[in-house]
Amino acid sequence: MFFFFFGGYEDIAPGIRCCDYVEDGMTRGRNGLPKRKYRMVECFEINHRKVLIDDWMKLCEERAIENGDTGLLEAITEHARTQPWLKKEKDIRLYALECLANGSYKSWFGGGEPDHADAERAIS
Q1: CA–centroid distance for 13 within its chain
Q2: How are the residues of the chain apportioned to helix, strand and coil, as percentages rounded to the nearest 5?
Q3: pLDDT at 33 over 50
Q4: Any alpha helices (H) in the chain, and if so which ranges?
Q5: Sheet with 16-28, side-by-side order of all strands
Q6: Domain residue ranges of the chain, discontinuous segments joined by +
């Protein structure tokens, strides 16, 4: 499914969600030799580079402040709180930021292009 991005989020819209392994220090194996430890992290692949989800969330929140979409983001966040599969606050915020960056909240209005006041009123 392809999304058409509007509103200044084209360059940071989340692409493919992927997992990557990063080195997490050294340990000793059973034979006493040094062994590398790895841990798995989730990330988004954006413009052919991998961005950690926490870094992407900070970047997207900064972009929302720059664009003046904080009211819309809060309205989307309140809507996300009503979704039963979102339990943790971080998951709720991530879902809201993805909806804002993808522009998927626009489909909640029957495909029309709502202004921010209409969106905040309809979501709340």
Answers
A1: 8
A2: 45, 25, 30
A3: yes
A4: 53-67, 70-80, 89-102, 116-123
A5: 16-28, 34-46, 49-52
A6: 16-123
Interval 62-76: pLDDT, tens: 988 988 888 889 988
CA 26 from centre of chain: 31
Task: State both tokens at 111.
Answer: 């495909």
CA distances from 36 to 26, 42, 54, 117 (A): 5, 20, 24, 53
In a 13 Å sphere around the CA of 26, the CA atoms on its Cβ side amount to 5
Q: Structure tokens of 97?
A: 């930021």
Task: Give this prediction's pTM.
Answer: 0.71
Between residues 4 and 93, which one has the greater pLDDT?
93
